[in-house]
TrEMBL record:
<protein>
    <submittedName>
        <fullName>VOC family protein</fullName>
    </submittedName>
</protein>
<dbReference type="InterPro" id="IPR029068">
    <property type="entry name" value="Glyas_Bleomycin-R_OHBP_Dase"/>
</dbReference>
<dbReference type="Pfam" id="PF00903">
    <property type="entry name" value="Glyoxalase"/>
</dbReference>
<dbReference type="InterPro" id="IPR037523">
    <property type="entry name" value="VOC_core"/>
</dbReference>
<feature type="domain" description="VOC">
    <location>
        <begin position="6"/>
        <end position="131"/>
    </location>
</feature>
<dbReference type="InterPro" id="IPR004360">
    <property type="entry name" value="Glyas_Fos-R_dOase_dom"/>
</dbReference>
């Protein structure tokens, strides 16, 4: 077996790190474990979730243009799993009431989930979902 890589972390590049940090902390409920002006890291099991200043990433990559040009369209999606479909509806409403932008209200999908979509303050669209329980109707 050859060498393998493992996804260790996801870094969200931000133009306004403090604003996005407060959203992930206050709206989505992630606990901050490191907070600097240009970098925030959250407590999360499995995969490290962090926010980093996009202009500083340009510094780290010899000024690569893609970190300083205006972003268009969606480049990534974070998927937040809930314990039950009912929780998706409650948490979606909670997120929107705290400042998330509602994109698509939760609904039962053809792929067996209850899913809603919301955007963070920088316009990144993410999903909130739960796997639907198997019942006699959909078995």
């Amino acid at each position: 077996m050859g060498m393998r890589v493992k996804l260790e972390g996801i870094t969200v590049l931000a133009l306004d790190v403090p604003r996005l940090t407060s959203f992930y902390r206050d709206v989505l409920g992630f606990k901050v474990i490191i907070e600097e002006g240009h970098y925030t890291e959250f407590e999360n099991d499995g995969v490290r979730l962090a926010i980093f200043a996009a202009p500083l990433m340009a510094d780290n990559t010899n000024g690569h243009y893609s970190f300083v040009e205006e972003r268009k369209g969606q480049a990534f999606e974070l998927n937040f799993e809930c314990a039950s479909p009912e929780d998706v509806y409650v948490m979606y409403d909670d997120f929107v009431s705290k400042g998330a932008t509602g994109i698509t209200a939760p609904k039962v999908t053809s792929w067996g989930h209850t899913t809603g979509f919301f955007a963070d303050p920088e316009g990144n669209i993410h999903s909130l979902f739960a796997v639907n329980p198997v019942t006699a109707e959909n078995a």
